[in-house]
Specification:
Layout (H helix, E strand, L loop, with lengths): L1 H17 L8 E4 L2 E4 L1 E4 L2 E13 L3 E11 L13 E7 L5 H15 L2 H17 L8 E7 L3 E6 L2 E6 L2 H12 L6 H7 L5
Antiparallel strand pairs: 1-2, 3-4, 4-5, 5-6, 6-7, 7-8, 8-9
Helix pairs in contact: 2-3, 2-4
Length: 193
């Protein structure tokens, strides 16, 4: 009877290998944070271009992030007039005041004075939306060309700010020419594995 058992077990194993297991390839993991390979927002499907872990001072884990664009959108167009979605899951606690200060400083460092002056009111409005975060909280930024940039904390929308110029400056903090971390930017854009 045992001689029949082995072929049955092998056949069962082969059949199980042929059954697609939903979910195994639908997400990516970055240091314990899980991100889907695609999201649908306002009826538009966006696809993961890259995910990475951002560190401060080399050893402190700041956040894991994932960035999404429409299918076949080149990385060079990430700051252009296309829908885009950035999710950051924090590994440390950060106060609302620290978010506001860091966002303002990062944008000031990356844009010229005229651009900063033209978006300063919207930046102040964004800074007023921030709340304190604790580990595993997620902030997301979603830009839709018809509506502007939406800030959400753990899936709850805090507010929306209009303008591609504002979106370009804000997303540029992570994805622009002078980002917080060029290695993090390149991994989010999928230009570096």
């Amino acid at each position: 009877m045992n001689r029949y058992r082995l072929p049955h077990i092998l056949c069962l194993f082969l059949l199980l290998c042929l059954i697609p297991v939903k979910g195994l390839c639908d997400t990516v993991r970055v240091d314990g944070s899980t991100f889907p390979r695609s999201v649908t927002l306002d009826g538009t499907r966006l696809f993961l271009t890259g995910a990475a872990l951002q560190r401060y001072l080399v050893i402190v884990k700041g956040y894991a992030g994932a960035f999404y664009l429409p299918a076949n959108t080149p990385a060079a167009e990430a700051l252009g007039p296309v829908p885009k979605y950035l999710v950051l899951e924090y590994k440390v606690s950060i106060s609302a005041g620290d978010f506001a200060e860091a966002t303002t400083r990062s944008i000031q460092d990356a844009v010229d004075a005229k651009t900063f002056a033209s978006i300063e009111d919207r930046l102040n409005a964004l800074n007023a939306l921030y709340a304190d975060v604790k580990p595993n909280d997620r902030y997301s930024l979603y830009y839709h060309p018809d509506r502007g940039t939406q800030l959400a904390l753990n899936g709850t929308v805090a507010g929306t700010l209009p303008g591609l110029d504002f979106a370009r400056a804000l997303f540029g903090v992570w994805l622009g020419e002078k980002p917080i971390d060029p290695d993090f930017r390149d991994r989010l854009l999928g230009v570096k594995p």
